[in-house]
Amino acid sequence: MISGIFVKILAIILLGVVAVIMILGLRTLFKGGETSKKHSNKLMQLRVLFQFIAIIVLVSFAYFFKN
Predict the structure, then answer these.
(1) How far is CA 33 from the centre of its chain?
(2) What is the pLDDT along the chain (67 residues), one digit of tens a residue?
(3) CB distance 15 to 54 below 8 Å
(4) For residues 44 and 26, is the Cβ–Cβ distance under 8 A?
(5) CA atoms within 13 Å, Cβ hemisphere of 18
Protein backbone atom coordinates (compact mmCIF):
# COMPACT_ATOMS: atom_id res chain seq x y z
CA MET A 1 0.00 0.00 0.00
CA ILE A 2 1.03 3.62 -0.34
CA SER A 3 2.76 5.04 2.71
CA GLY A 4 1.93 8.35 4.35
CA ILE A 5 5.35 9.80 3.51
CA PHE A 6 4.83 9.10 -0.20
CA VAL A 7 1.46 10.85 -0.12
CA LYS A 8 2.95 13.92 1.58
CA ILE A 9 5.87 14.11 -0.85
CA LEU A 10 3.56 13.74 -3.86
CA ALA A 11 1.24 16.44 -2.50
CA ILE A 12 4.17 18.84 -2.01
CA ILE A 13 5.47 18.12 -5.51
CA LEU A 14 2.05 18.71 -7.08
CA LEU A 15 1.54 21.97 -5.23
CA GLY A 16 5.09 23.05 -6.11
CA VAL A 17 4.48 22.42 -9.80
CA VAL A 18 1.31 24.51 -9.68
CA ALA A 19 3.16 27.33 -7.90
CA VAL A 20 6.04 27.32 -10.40
CA ILE A 21 3.67 27.41 -13.38
CA MET A 22 1.69 30.24 -11.78
CA ILE A 23 4.85 32.27 -11.13
CA LEU A 24 6.06 31.73 -14.69
CA GLY A 25 2.66 32.77 -16.06
CA LEU A 26 2.54 35.92 -13.95
CA ARG A 27 6.11 36.84 -14.86
CA THR A 28 5.32 36.41 -18.55
CA LEU A 29 2.11 38.43 -18.15
CA PHE A 30 3.88 41.35 -16.52
CA LYS A 31 6.76 41.24 -18.99
CA GLY A 32 4.38 42.20 -21.77
CA GLY A 33 5.11 42.40 -25.45
CA GLU A 34 5.11 39.56 -27.94
CA THR A 35 6.16 37.00 -25.31
CA SER A 36 3.12 37.81 -23.21
CA LYS A 37 0.78 37.42 -26.16
CA LYS A 38 2.21 34.02 -27.06
CA HIS A 39 2.79 32.34 -23.72
CA SER A 40 0.94 33.98 -20.82
CA ASN A 41 -2.50 32.56 -21.57
CA LYS A 42 -1.10 29.10 -22.31
CA LEU A 43 0.79 29.06 -19.01
CA MET A 44 -2.34 30.03 -17.10
CA GLN A 45 -4.32 27.31 -18.87
CA LEU A 46 -1.59 24.84 -17.95
CA ARG A 47 -1.78 26.04 -14.34
CA VAL A 48 -5.53 25.39 -14.24
CA LEU A 49 -4.98 21.89 -15.65
CA PHE A 50 -2.33 21.08 -13.04
CA GLN A 51 -4.50 22.55 -10.28
CA PHE A 52 -7.31 20.23 -11.35
CA ILE A 53 -4.96 17.23 -11.33
CA ALA A 54 -3.58 18.21 -7.91
CA ILE A 55 -7.05 18.63 -6.42
CA ILE A 56 -8.25 15.28 -7.79
CA VAL A 57 -5.15 13.48 -6.46
CA LEU A 58 -5.30 15.16 -3.03
CA VAL A 59 -9.04 14.55 -2.61
CA SER A 60 -8.63 10.92 -3.63
CA PHE A 61 -5.79 10.50 -1.11
CA ALA A 62 -7.96 12.08 1.58
CA TYR A 63 -10.85 9.77 0.69
CA PHE A 64 -8.81 6.55 0.64
CA PHE A 65 -6.60 7.38 3.64
CA LYS A 66 -9.12 9.00 5.98
CA ASN A 67 -8.31 6.72 8.91
Answers:
(1) 26
(2) 667 788 889 889 999 999 999 899 888 888 888 878 788 888 889 989 999 999 999 898 888 877 6
(3) yes
(4) no
(5) 14
